[in-house]
Amino acid sequence: MSDLSSSNLSRVLHARFDEILAAWVSQQVAATRRASIAESDVRAQCGELLDAMRKALGGPGRDDIQTPAWGGVRELLQRVSFSRAQQGFSPSETATFILSLKRPLFEAVRADSGNNAEALADATWAVTELLDQLALISMEAYMRTREELIARQQQDMLELSTPVVKLWEGVLALPMIGTLDSSRTQVVMENLLQRIVETGSDVAILDITGVPTVDTLTAQHLIKTVTAARLMGAECIISGIRPQIAQTIVHLGVDLGDVVTKATLADAFKVALARSGLAVTRMKSAQGPMGSTSPSAR
Amino acid sequence: MLTTRSETVQIRQTSDIVNVRQVVRSWCLAIGMGLVDLTKIVTAASEIARNTLDYGRGGTMLIEELRDGIRAGVRLTFVDEGPGIPDIARAMTDGYTSGGGMGLGLGGTKRLVDDFTIDSAAGAGTRIAIIKWKSR
After folding, report:
1. Same domain, A81 and A42
2. What are phi and psi of A126, to 5 degrees?
3. A244 Cβ contact list (under 8 Å, min separation 6)
4. Which residues of chain A have pLDDT under 70?
5. What is the pLDDT of residues A133-175, one digit of tens each?
6. In what order do the strands lie in the sheet containing B115-120?
7. Which terminus of chain B is more solvent-facing, meaning fewer CB atoms within 10 Å of its CB: N or C?
8. What integer pLDDT is reported at residue B26 of this predicted model?
9. Does A262 lie in the same domain as A130?
10. Which CATH number covers residue B68?
11. ipTM beyond 0.90?
12. Which of A221, A252, A254 to mutate: most B Cβ within 10 Å?
């Protein structure tokens, strides 16, 4: 943007501020049929931004959108884009906010230029350049918000999916869920080894009921985890091997070696108890289901 | 043999392997493939997709739904422009790996699917096509 065209633009904005604002707001109200954003909010956002633009165009450094003079405009636009991204607006709906300013500005510039074609062309180019840059800022802010959201969700999943639970004195269980790719397995393994040390457990049950695919990398991770646990003095049992997973492992040619495997977590728990010299038996004096509220049993 | 629909999936980062598995799973469910065959082809796709990423420096998977008379199935074609495989016979041998894996991926995949073709040469990239038919 040349200094001349920015000063022209500044003049137009000063002279026709209310006209431009009214046209912009009505454009947006027509474009967004959302109930989630009130017209008064739109009006306030538009007014604030247009005012900031007027200030930026009036001062030094007005030719370059990256200068501190434009800081207020950039910040406002980013804030609007952030809040729209958080409210679940689509990228086009978010971009519409700034892009719908194009037409009102063009019309104001045209009315201002009169019959001077050269001035009109210059001013049109200045507006286009300015609004394109602002649209990019808006989109970058929008994408950044979405990326932050995704990163946070990934982090949540990483933490959610790795609980090590104590089933009994000396018996840990690790119910694994979802994809076992490298970074997740690393967290899982560290958690498990840490808990083995803390609880002094001799048996750890790795339950893979919630793992949809066991390929060679997953199998390798499992074997590594079992080996590491063994080095710490704990035996591992792998449970939750469904029929289709069993067949797939056989076809892949994966050898789970001397790892004890069981179809269900219950079976694995039974083995773990037996190892500790314990067994679950039915009580002879039991009168019925637990929690029975019969007042007199006799 | 007729291709009724097809789609290309990019394999550029680890999370794309999860996407590959999900795409393959949903396509196989759409033709009514049973759970065992479904698990086999999804596992095979996971193996080859990881090879495409780790050894082939990324590439694409073309998934096609096939009709052959009354038979239905899917074909997955993985293409990369990586360094290629100089000795295919050795790469197919169980237990051989040029990386840090178990060396079962290619041989294991071949056993999981109904048809397996591999084209590769040193410096010319790798193209692997696998087919799984829905068993009746």
Report:
1. yes
2. -60, -40
3. B35, B36, B38, B39, B40
4. 1-4, 32-36, 158-161, 182, 286-298
5. 999 999 999 999 888 888 888 777 766 667 889 999 999 999 8
6. B2-11, B59-68, B71-80, B126-133, B115-120
7. C
8. 94
9. no
10. 3.30.565.10
11. no
12. A252
Angstrom distance (rounded) from CA B126 to CA A93: 42
**Cβ contacts (< 8 Å) between B101 and chain A: which residues?**
216-217, 220
Tens-digit pLDDT profile for residues A266-280: 999 999 999 888 888
Looking from the CA of A167 toward its CB, the CA atoms found within 13 Å total 20
Say which residues have a Cβ less than 8 Å from residue A2's Cβ, sequence separation at least 6. A63, A122, A126
pTM of the model: 0.68
The per-residue pLDDT for A152 is 85
3-state class (DSSP) for residue A1: coil
CATH of the domain at A237: 3.30.750.24
- Measure the CA–CA gap between A124 and A239, rounded to whole angstroms: 69
Closest residue in B to A242 (Cα) is B36
What CATH number did the domain enclosing A127 receive? 1.10.490.10
More confident residue, B135 or B28: B28
Query: Which of B21, B42, B47 lies closest to A216 in CB terms?
Result: B47
